[in-house]
Design goal:
Layout: E1 21-22, E2 34-43, E3 46-54, H1 58-69, E4 75-78, E5 81-84, H2 85-92
Antiparallel strand pairs: 1-2, 2-3, 4-5
Helix pairs in contact: 1-2
């Protein structure tokens, strides 16, 4: 959780990712440099995820973009644009 000590992935509660801040190990000393998960909730047969990039490393940000785009039924909103998972991956290329 933001503002607390780092925890390994196996200690993150699977049912509640809201408020979690993902960082690379080397960035732990730097506050607010990572990905902040605002919302992560089930929605129908899928889920809703809202992530904010707070000076995250390019590798971490790229990994998150590809993971989200890997869901074929994903709907990605960025600014005033909407993409399906495959469209998002094409856009990233």
């Amino acid at each position: 959780m933001i503002g607390t000590t780092a925890r390994p992935p196996d200690q993150v509660p699977g049912a509640d990712y809201e408020g979690w801040f993902l960082q690379r190990d080397g960035a732990l000393a730097s506050k607010n440099k990572g990905l902040f998960i605002f919302h992560c909730r089930t929605r129908g047969s899928g889920f809703f995820l809202r992530v904010e990039k707070d000076e995250a490393s390019e590798g971490l940000w790229t990994a998150m973009q590809r993971i989200v785009g890997g869901f074929p039924q994903a709907e990605v909103e960025s600014g005033n644009c909407r993409f399906t998972g495959p469209e998002w991956l094409d856009y990233l290329k």
